[in-house]
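>> Question from a student workshop board

For tomorrow's exercise we were told to take the sequence and the ligand below, predict the bound structure, and bring the output to class. My setup keeps failing. Could a helper post the expected result so I can at least see what it should look like? The ligand is 4-O-methyl-beta-D-glucopyranuronic acid.
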Amino acid sequence: MKAFSGLIGAVALLLAGTAHADDGYRLWLRHGGETARPAPVDAPAGAPMTVAVRGATPTLRLAADELARAMPAGTMPVTVATAGDAGIAALRLPFAALGDEGYLVRTVTLDGKRTLLIAGNSDRGTLYGAFALLRHLATGGTTSTAALTSAPKVKLRVLNHWDNLDGTVERGYAGQSLWDWWTLPDLKDPRYTDYARANASLGINGTVLNNVNAKADSLTPRYIAKAAALADVFRPWGIKVYLSARFSAPIELGGLKTADPRDPAVAAWWKAKADEIYRAIPDFGGFLVKANSEGQPGPRDYNASHADGANMLAAAVRPHGGIVMWRAFVYADTDPTDRAKQAYSEFKPLDGTFADNVLVQVKNGAIDFQPREPFHPLFGAMPKTPLMMEFQITKEYLGFATHLAYLGPLFEETLAAKTGRGRETVAGVVDGSSEGHRLTGMAGVANIGRDRDWSGSTFNQANWYAFGRMAWDPALPAEPLAREWAQQTFGGDARVVDTAVAMMMGSREAVVDYTGALGLAHLMATGHHYGPGPWVSDLKRPEWNPAYYHKADRDGIGFDRTKTGSNAVAQYAAPIARQLADPKTTPERDLLWFHHVRWDRPMRSGKTLWQDLVAHYDRGVGYVAGMRRQWDGVRALVDAERWQKTADDLAVQEREARWWRDASLSYWMSVNRLPLPAGVTPPEHDLAWYRAQHFDYVPGHY
Ligand code: GCW
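>> Workshop helper replied:
Here is what the output should look like for this input. Compare the format with yours to find the bug.
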């Protein structure tokens, strides 16, 4: 009997364990719906909700399903519909302001009965409304307080997958690509549906399937059929498919001698290719192009301009309503000028010459997704061209998947930056309000892979989340987004939510601090970008070397971008250029980005620059130690699986933050010959040890 009850106990324990195990698959959508594997549902039990669907389309049905699964039992009936329905039109609700994709949620009387109506002008709008209502309920709202109205401020809200056809992901740290190109189009992994659903819940409405370092193969009939299969899965969720186009494809696939965009045969090849794609994918979004950058082919190979290239492709997709996203991330290995200046120099003169279905896609900063960069000077400098923001959600330079770094503050900092043209902000440029552009967009380089938790850690999911929400509304601040994400992800316990938000909000600054604060950038190891390498100075191209970026010597440190140096500051509008021209008026957080200053320069803290820099390294490491303590404090309140994985990641992060600090300090001391301030812990090893660290098979580096 004893043994028997012991057995029951063990089974019960096992069941309880299973019930609470959570591998993060459900993301912030806790009301279940996993198609890949049955999972526990947090939604309240009870009689199912009545959800009426008027004029059912596949998309409206999806909206209704979400609500039926998640709405608390016993609440008022819900109706999903679109504005065109006669009964809804008779209500005379303010649909005009909602545009194509907006929604409203409010209590109305329909056919003599009170119902909570969720409706948009399109069924996609209604689907977004359903998710907005669920978010409202999961973050403390009730159906009786549900009076929601919203329309996206940005038209194209797009993920960029740097996914290769062999299943690897460039700068991806969450496992293999989600796309199983080999088995497509026959096999449609249920995860494709879950992926689309997660994106729809945020309002993301487009996805570029393949790496910008593109292979022409993506444009062959075989791969078009595979992309079409994904497009079929994504369509009811309001998501369009786009492809990265390799500019030399007419040569590689078409057997032409040239890819010169001014050659009629080249234009005809692209037109036929576009027609072929649209036959398979009638709502194909268009092309994303990386041209003449890091070895990619492009119009400059033929002395044609980026506008020539973009416009030729734009003409091919125009009859089908497609668009071209042309990247401004160019720097040439033949151009000796400051890399930070090159995109502006190349693109600014082209303002006004792009076709009206082209967006120029600009990274948030002028170098490359560093932990902190001042906003890209192109924002505000090309008023006649829609500029699309490109953020990197995957953390190539912020600790890969293991470091906890919430990017909301990084996104917010860039979007809120003033361009110096009147009251204009970067957000105003991106959402088109500043110049009245209607074609607008925001892209995020995805952090999604085949890991069960999609993003390589629970907290990385917050970066996908924040990107999607800010693409919908670039004015949304990072903190409330962190909170709503944490509430949905961990449930309602305020202790967990408060702790998660507190950890998240300072986490990006901590990465800045332990990798190099005060405007330092690009100090990582070569190629794979894992860990510190400030000493690297022997690579072929000057701008590949960290030493090119920090310019540290015995007397000082920093890149002079004023007129005594590269004069990159002159690329900003006058008020900003003036501010940045003087180290005294430059924000200290960007000081060494724009100025070469002495190690003993006095700082606001009262310390010298050197002492201040050391303090930043210590603060960064200390912050991570602090996050570990905070996370320990909620151990009992978070499911074991997600708690443990996060705790393990934080341990890695603390070790690697120390490594960054120690390696960097050792190197700076070898250059400036200065002692560490009193009381500061010396690096664990000597510089030779740090320089000798070598890593093969680093993820994301192909
Ligand atoms: O961030 C850098 C990466 C490259 C990437 C490139 C780009 C896709 O190190 O891996 O290539 O930028 O954005 O094109």
